[in-house]
Specification:
- With about 475 residues, the protein is of the alpha/beta class.
- The protein has two domains: about 15-145, Leucine Aminopeptidase, subunit E, domain 1, CATH 3.40.220.10; about 150-465, Aminopeptidase, CATH 3.40.630.10.
- It has 15 helices and 20 strands.
- The strands form four sheets. Strands 7, 8, 9, 10, 11, 14, 15, 16 and 18 form a nine-stranded mixed sheet that branches.
- It has helices at about 30-35, 40-50, 85-90, 105-120, 145-165, 170-185, 195-200, 205-210, 250-255, 260-275, 320-335, 350-355, 365-380, 415-420, 455-465, and strands at about 15, 20-25, 60-65, 70-75, 95-100, 135-140, 190-195, 215-225, 230-235, 235-240, 280-290, 305, 310-315, 340-345, 360, 385, 405, 430-435, 440, 450.
- It binds ligand BES and zinc ion (ZN) (2 copies).
- One zinc ion binds near residues 241, 243, 318 and 320.
Length: about 475
């Protein structure tokens, strides 16, 4: 399945100078007039004819008298740190070799290279025509292509996993991907499945996944030095979410192959971490299930005894993500990790609050929150804090069990879901929950419609800052 990754070698990026590469001029709005004056009369006519004003995101391709591309001009507000501008440029130019005329440095250069590479991402596994764009960007030696490659591959892995339909990305296949990763990076992996889940007490994972053809399971991967700080990533691996007996309408069910987006995120992030050799003891936990319907499906009103011992009344079988996550979070908490992050396509309510592109995160840890926000801005990778507002906890009360899996009102649904998860996290563990959509609803340069990694670069950058060598 890892063969799905299209940009394996990131061969659209090369280091150093080469002969005959086409220059890309980055034009700030301020510098536009000066730049234009230096052009020939015919070039100025070309600029006018295309209403090119140097505004951010505008791209103009110049050709010589032989019809070959001679230069590219792009409107660019560099301070915006926007990688997708470079996807726009890559997508607007024909295949060939290019270099950026301006001196870019540090993070701007890294994000430019990342954006350029992502313009070459295409999920073409099921297509006869696998023609992929090949515009090569030569970047200065200052650009660390190894770390750019790591960001690109981690993002592409997350996208590929989400894009793969459930017929080829069920709990079996998701576990296979984790096994391949573990083998590649010499990590330990343990998979507990089917009846074994019940023996160990992972009852919520079994209950949600028991009606599916492919057995529910818990993937547990461990990598790195035992003595290093313990970072645990937990990802929602609902390979398909029908809603269960509280079945989803067809329009909502249509894209529910993406409900393992959290798992895709932690595998993508895990790959980045292991490739760059961060000094941590990494653990990845993925409850992998299908929330399906059959005679043995769990029902609204059922009560499940969780791994932690808390009894949960099922108010809605469609709130299955928090159910499978709660056993994984309780297990993760047993060893008191130094940091715990979970990624989940958890609620529609998070989309109502934030739209599809801004994942909210929830944490009580101020340092963690500030750190994530800082790196979200630096990486141009949107995230926004939402509160773990304790008084809403009472909305999860049940008269016959310790907790209900849904709020008694629909209000504040992303918050009540996060509060439910918090109940299963050890009291002093720095923990953050990210409610990600994991999907681009429409195509933009570098971001085709379909699976998307959200908050991944921000999280990786945050972790690199904290645990990097
Ligand atoms: N997988 C969904 C969340 C979801 C829905 C994410 C649509 C993105 C788009 C989750 O399992 C779910 O169905 N949640 C319910 C919870 C409700 C029943 C309390 C929701 O958000 O509607
Ligand atoms: Zn659901
Ligand atoms: Zn779900």
């Amino acid at each position: 399945m890892l063969n799905h990754i299209n940009i394996k070698e990131v061969n659209c990026l090369k280091s150093g100078k080469a002969k005959n590469t086409v220059p890309i001029w980055l034009i700030g709005t301020d510098g536009f007039k000066v730049w234009k004056k230096k052009l020939s009369k015919s070039e100025q006519t070309w600029v006018n004819a295309h209403d090119f004003t140097g505004s951010h995101g505008q791209v103009l391709v110049f050709s010589n008298d032989k019809g070959a591309v001679s230069a590219v001009a792009a409107g660019c507000a560099l301070e915006e740190n926007d990688p997708w501008l470079f996807s726009t440029i890559a997508q607007s130019v024909p295949d060939g070799s290019y270099h950026i005329e301006s001196e870019l440095e540090g993070n701007v250069l890294k994000l430019a290279a990342f954006g350029w590479a992502m313009a070459h991402y295409k999920y073409d596994h099921y297509l006869k025509d696998k023609k992929v764009k090949k515009a090569v960007l030569y970047v200065s030696k200052k650009c660390d292509l190894k770390s750019v490659g790591s960001l690109v591959r981690g993002t592409a892995l997350a996208r590929d996993l989400v894009n793969t339909p459930t017929c080829d990305m069920g709990p079996d296949e998701l576990a296979d991907v984790a096994k391949k990763l573990a083998k590649h990076f010499k990590a330990k992996i343990k998979i507990t499945k089917g009846q074994e889940l019940l023996k160990k007490g992972y009852n919520t994972i079994h209950t949600v996944g028991r009606a599916a053809e492919k057995e529910p399971r818990l993937i547990d991967m461990i990598w790195g030095n035992e003595k290093s700080p313990k970072v645990t990533l937990v990802g929602k691996g609902v390979c398909f979410d029908t809603g269960g007996l509280d079945i989803k309408p067809s329009g909502s069910m249509l894209i529910m192959k993406k409900d393992m987006g959290g798992a895709a995120h932690v595998l993508g992030l895990g790959q980045m971490i292991m490739e760059s050799g961060l000094d941590i003891r990494l653990r990845i936990l993925i409850p992998a299930v299908e929330n399906n319907i059959a005679g043995n499906a769990f029902r609204p009103g059922d009560i499940i005894k969780s791994y932690k011992g808390t009894t949960i009344e099922v108010g809605n079988t469609d709130a299955e993500g928090r159910l499978v996550l709660c056993d994984a979070l309780a297990l993760a908490s047993e060893e008191n990790p130094d940091l715990m992050m979970d990624f989940a396509t958890l609620t529609g309510a998070a989309r109502v609050a934030m739209g599809t592109d801004v994942p909210p995160y929830f944490t009580d840890d101020k340092n963690l929150s500030d750190g994530l926000m800082k790196h979200s801005t630096l990486e141009h990778d949107p995230l926004w804090p939402m509160p773990l507002y304790a008084p809403y906890k009472k909305l999860l009360a049940s008269p016959i069990a310790d907790i209900n899996n849904v709020g008694s009102t629909g209000f504040g649904g992303a918050i009540t879901a996060a509060l439910f998860l918090k109940d299963f996290v050890g009291p002093d563990i720095p923990w953050v929950h990210l409610d990600v959509y994991a999907w681009n609803v429409s195509a933009r340069p570098g971001r085709p419609k379909g699976g998307e990694a959200m908050g991944l670069r921000a999280s990786f950058d945050y972790l690199s800052g904290k645990y990097g060598k």
